[in-house]
């Protein structure tokens, strides 16, 4: 039992959780504050993951230059998606982002791209430069039921540092006059235009900044693991949306807590079910079905939450009354 | 009096002594329907001009075209000598030509005060990088807030300052939109039915306020169906029907113009040109 609990609790601070939280903060800026429907946050994450890992493996760049390449690629992606769509109704961005994410995933996973992107197998072993910066002495660090290596601790610390940095950045931005214009655009872009603001430019800025958050999330996501093209499908985007809505779309802290709850719940239900199957208390499931069932259970839990607390955990209920 | 505003007789499209806005051959077609077809019109500077006409006359569409919210099929117009055709809406607003909307556009999920601050121009904190450093925009923000508070008091919205705009009534939203437009410190303010839904007691003080704008040197162009109000505050009246300018002149003369009576009665017979009301009122 301690192990199951320990597992679930460890998901509160895993680098993966941090990555999802950061990607969700990005769409909080897009959707929650600017009203942009980005259904392709996966593509910004993929740009981060591939931009970084290809730079290291294929071009032999060091850690920081590789991060720089990912950042430039992310900005280019935002312009590519934004230029044709941001003058149009918000639905167009939604369609284009979702399509771009799928196109990107197909391209990187084709076998002809294998020498660069690793094709269907993806890429691994590009993190030496990152771990070389680890100041924590080599060894095993044991707390309660956990046993971390120095590199695990480093990845956790760096991930949450990056999340904190962007969360604070966004909190400052949305409280500034810039944030006021952004929120105005969410409410009615023509009104904001009539007050002399270049709405198109602000939407582009929001797309770039939120996309960059997705890109850094993509890098955090792959640093401790490997790059798998299959990870960047629409499900990734929808998990991030789930996290966003769970925490409350127009909040910053909501994305972080949302990611923690999402991953702990997933781990907890999975572990409880498979223990049940193992010791015979659950007879109607096989071990293989547990993986699918836990997503269904999480889905039900989220539905309940959305029904009984539609504004998300940290959202302001007033906002919903008025929108209705 | 009229001789001081128009050059020569007050005929449709007549030249003005000191025009701030001049439009030529502005035409906008929706499918086969010609919504606006204005050959020539000039708006006199520093005065209050009313743009009237029956429903569907093209008044709102004309506003949209002039302010860059819609593109005409053809036409040219200048504001203070600057050509505006093809200039995007936000630049038109920055030049000092600001409009409100017939269907109110309050920014619901931000507060009344934030709505007002959004109208301010040249706030450095609206740039992404400078937004991060509060000392760069704090002083501007304080000045903007003080100005906004003053306007809100004048529009009797000061008590609502920290509420979401969504909590305002329809009339209060009209007031907020007008106050917000004034935050931009325009030279020409274009109001599309500013009094629709505003209660009579407040209308009176709003009329005073619009006169106040004129005294501050602003030019006002407004669309209004309430002829009583048109008579009351406008210096000049322009009448549109079926997309065209059909009459112009000082309020009292325009109301007697057969073309105007035609335009109104032709469109809907129960319309009241304010003559009756005026008679009863006095
Ligand atoms: N977006 C549009 N698409 C098609 N037709 C339009 C559009 N906007 C306006 N029209 C048409 O153009 C004509 C003029 O409309 P407009 O809204 O300018 O009238 P208005 O003078 O402002 O009327 P009201 O006093 O009722 O506000 C109408 O016949 C209307 O049906
Ligand atoms: Mg209209």
TrEMBL record, chain A:
Query: Which Pfam families does the entry link to?
Result: BPD_transp_2
Q: Which GO terms describe its molecular function?
A: branched-chain amino acid transmembrane transporter activity
Please list which residues make up the signal peptide.
Answer: none
Where would you say this protein principally sits, based on its record? membrane
Q: According to its record, what are the GO cellular component terms?
A: plasma membrane
Q: Does the keyword Cytoplasm apply?
A: no
Instruction: Kindly list the places in or outside the cell where this protein is found, as annotated in its UniProt entry.
Output: Cell membrane
Q: Which InterPro entries match?
A: ABC_transp_permease (IPR001851), LivM-like (IPR043428)
Membrane topology reported for the UniProt record: Multi-pass membrane protein
Which keywords annotate this record?
Cell membrane, Membrane, Transmembrane, Transmembrane helix
Q: What is this protein called?
A: Unannotated protein
Annotated source species: freshwater metagenome
UniProtKB/TrEMBL annotation, chain B:
The record's SMART domains line, in alphabetical order, gives: AAA
One GO cellular-component annotation of the UniProt record comes to:
plasma membrane
Could you cite one Gene Ontology molecular function of this protein? ATP binding
Sorted alphabetically, which keywords does the UniProt record give? ATP-binding, Nucleotide-binding, Transport
**InterPro entries, per this entry?**
AAA+_ATPase, ABC_AA/LPS_Transport, ABC_transporter-like_ATP-bd, ABC_transporter-like_CS, BCA_ABC_TP_C, P-loop_NTPase
Alphabetized Pfam families for the sequence: ABC_tran, BCA_ABC_TP_C
- Annotated SUPFAM superfamilies: P-loop containing nucleoside triphosphate hydrolases
User: Which residue range or ranges hold the ABC transporter domain?
Assistant: 21-267
Report if keyword ATP-binding is assigned. yes
Q: What is this protein called?
A: Unannotated protein
Q: Which organism is it from?
A: freshwater metagenome
């Amino acid at each position: 039992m301690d192990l199951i609990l320990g597992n679930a609790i460890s998901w509160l601070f895993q680098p993966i959780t941090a990555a999802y939280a950061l990607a969700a903060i990005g769409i909080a800026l897009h959707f929650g504050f600017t009203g942009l429907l980005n259904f392709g946050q996966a593509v910004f994450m993929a740009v981060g993951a591939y931009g970084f890992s290809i730079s290291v493996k294929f071009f032999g760049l060091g850690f920081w230059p590789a991060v720089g390449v990912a950042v430039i690629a992310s900005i280019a992606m935002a312009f590519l998606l934004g230029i044709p769509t941001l003058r149009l109704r918000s639905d167009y961005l939604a369609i284009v982002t979702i399509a771009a994410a799928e196109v990107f995933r197909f391209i990187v996973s084709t076998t002809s791209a294998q020498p660069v992107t690793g094709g269907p197998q993806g890429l691994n072993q590009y993190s030496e430069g990152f771990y070389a910066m680890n100041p924590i002495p080599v060894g095993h660090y044991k707390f309660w039921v956990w046993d971390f290596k120095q590199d695990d601790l480093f990845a956790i610390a760096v991930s949450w540092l990056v999340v904190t940095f962007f969360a604070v950045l966004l909190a400052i931005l949305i409280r500034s006059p810039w944030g006021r214009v952004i929120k105005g655009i969410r409410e009615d872009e023509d009104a904001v235009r009539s007050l002399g603001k270049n709405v198109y430019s602000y939407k582009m800025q929001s797309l770039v900044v939120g996309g960059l958050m997705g890109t850094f999330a993509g890098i955090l996501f792959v640093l401790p693991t490997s790059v798998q093209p299959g990870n960047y499908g629409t499900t990734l985007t929808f998990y991030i949306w789930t996290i966003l809505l769970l925490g409350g779309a127009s909040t910053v802290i909501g994305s972080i807590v949302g990611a923690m709850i999402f991953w702990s719940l997933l781990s907890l239900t999975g572990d409880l079910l498979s223990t049940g199957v193992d010791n015979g208390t659950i007879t109607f499931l096989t071990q293989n079905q547990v993986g699918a069932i836990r997503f269904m259970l999480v889905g039900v839990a989220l539905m309940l939450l959305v029904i009984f607390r539609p504004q998300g955990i940290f959202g302001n209920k007033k906002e919903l009354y008025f929108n209705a | 009096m009229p001789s001081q505003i128009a050059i020569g007789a007050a005929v449709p499209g007549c030249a003005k002594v000191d025009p701030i806005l001049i439009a030529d051959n502005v035409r906008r077609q929706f499918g086969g329907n010609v919504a606006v077809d204005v050959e020539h019109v000039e708006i006199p500077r520093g005065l209050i001009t009313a743009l009237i006409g029956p429903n569907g006359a093209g008044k709102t569409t004309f506003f949209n075209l002039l302010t860059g919210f819609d593109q005409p099929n053809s036409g040219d117009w200048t504001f203070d000598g600057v050509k505006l055709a093809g200039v995007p809406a936000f630049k038109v607003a920055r030049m000092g030509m600001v409009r409100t909307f017939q269907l109110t556009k309050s920014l619901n999920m931000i507060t009344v005060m934030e709505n007002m601050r959004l109208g301010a121009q040249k706030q450095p904190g609206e740039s992404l990088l400078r937004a991060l450093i509060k000392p760069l925009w704090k002083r501007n923000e304080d000045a903007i807030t003080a100005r906004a508070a003053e306007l809100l008091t004048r529009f009797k919205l000061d008590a609502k300052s920290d509420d979401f705009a969504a909590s305002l009534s329809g009339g209060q939203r009209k007031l907020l939109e007008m106050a917000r437009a004034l935050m931009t410190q325009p030279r020409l303010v274009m109001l599309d039915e500013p009094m629709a839904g505003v209660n009579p007691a407040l209308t009176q003080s709003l009329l005073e306020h619009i006169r106040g704008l004129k005294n501050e040197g602003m030019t006002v162009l407004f669309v209004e169906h309430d002829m009583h109000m048109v008579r009351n505050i406008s210096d000049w009246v322009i009448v549109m029907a079926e997309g065209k300018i059909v009459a112009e002149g000082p309020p009292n003369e325009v109301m007697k113009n057969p073309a105007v009576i035609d335009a109104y009665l032709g469109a809907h017979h129960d319309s009241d040109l304010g003559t009756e009301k005026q008679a009863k009122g006095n």
